[in-house]
Design goal:
2 domains, three-stranded parallel beta sheet, four-stranded mixed beta sheet, 5 helices, alpha/beta
């Protein structure tokens, strides 16, 4: 007698949502203003504008850019805005902040645009343990968007999921 192995998870109504599936392609690059500043601290507008015009911006094609300054220089807002005008034709995303904040911003945009109607009144599991750097706050944003729709929400893998929410 052979015992047939039945995948009960595949046969269940359980819907799996994996944020890793939405991870956008493209390099993540930190664009540090420090080398663009005189002695790393002073922005000289004329030289700054000249250097921006001479820079090869095409190297940022299809990239996600985090604009930052690694020194304690006081950089005016217009400097970041000016850099963004040069990056805009090439970069997918331009964000003022570090890489972690960049990823959070990217995912905030992705999650805000997600159509989650297929999860209406369904038991949902948000898959954990991603191989890609999905920011932790993306999971928080997702549960907040799923809660009004889903019948229940769990986190992890189907065999060992942690219950997060169940509609009463």
């Amino acid at each position: 007698m052979t015992d047939e192995i039945i995948n009960r998870v595949a046969n269940s109504r359980l819907k799996v949502l994996d944020l890793e599936d939405y991870y956008p392609k493209g390099k993540r690059i930190v664009f540090d203003l420090k080398p663009w500043l005189y002695e790393g601290f002073v922005l000289r507008e004329k030289e700054f504008r000249k250097a921006l015009k001479a820079h090869d911006w095409s190297q940022y094609e299809h990239s996600h850019i985090a604009l930052t300054c690694s020194t304690d220089a006081i950089v005016p807002a217009w400097a970041y805005m000016l850099i963004a005008t040069y990056l805009e034709p090439f970069a997918k995303t331009i964000f003022k902040g570090n890489l972690e904040a960049l990823e959070a911003s990217i995912y905030q945009d992705i999650i805000s645009k997600l159509d989650l109607t297929e999860f209406q009144d369904q038991p949902v599991i948000i898959k954990g343990c991603s191989n890609k750097p999905v920011p932790l706050n993306a999971y928080t944003m997702l549960i907040n968007k799923l809660k009004p729709l889903a019948r229940s929400v769990k986190y992890g893998e189907a065999c060992s999921a942690v219950p997060l929410y169940k509609r009463r």
